[in-house]
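Before relying on records like the one below, remember that each one covers exactly one chain. Contacts with other chains, cofactors or solvent are not represented anywhere in the record.
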Amino acid sequence: MRKTRPNCGRSEVWVNEESLSGAAKAEAIHQAALEALERKELDAAKAGFAKALEAFESLGDKVGAAMTRHNLGLTSQEAGDLSSARQWLEQSLAISEAEGLEGGIAVTSHQLGVVAQLAEEYPAARQWFERALSLEEKHGNELAVAMTCHQLGIVTQLCGDKDGAIAWYERAVETFERLGAADHAGKTRKLLDYLTDFERKGNHEGHAGPCGRLN
């Protein structure tokens, strides 16, 4: 999950035009880095996020610093450097916890779950996803709930609990379909069918198996 600036429910007061200009510049650098990440230009994304982080920190913008550290973690994850990804995400989480940013805590906990899953640390992944899910449910973020249920289904399946995985996948599919997120629903349904078709036919013919993650 890429992290963008949340609505924190608080007003921002800038003391002078120079501060406003600096904030706008930091946001623009961060946005350009997000676009590079979307294009899979990982070196450019990493450099852009590093520059944005320096700018946010010079402004004392804790939300911007947490957001950018999260996205540096995501960039490291995309590059296959799970150790660096975990370090950046943990730094982001620490800021969100200190600032009481529950939206940031949820999205970064989810991403730490993805990193743990990729590292085959399934019990840790489940704990991170469960933490994210509790906050997503609290704030009524149904799309995030569905995405985390999808991930919990994968982790549960990889741990050998087929019935538990089916329950998570069914919840994710129901929520995606209710929200009109057809692409996401289709990806999760493939995983669900992979398990339920095996029950009916005794094989996985026609299915490629777990896709790993949605995001």
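The longest helix spans residues 17-38.
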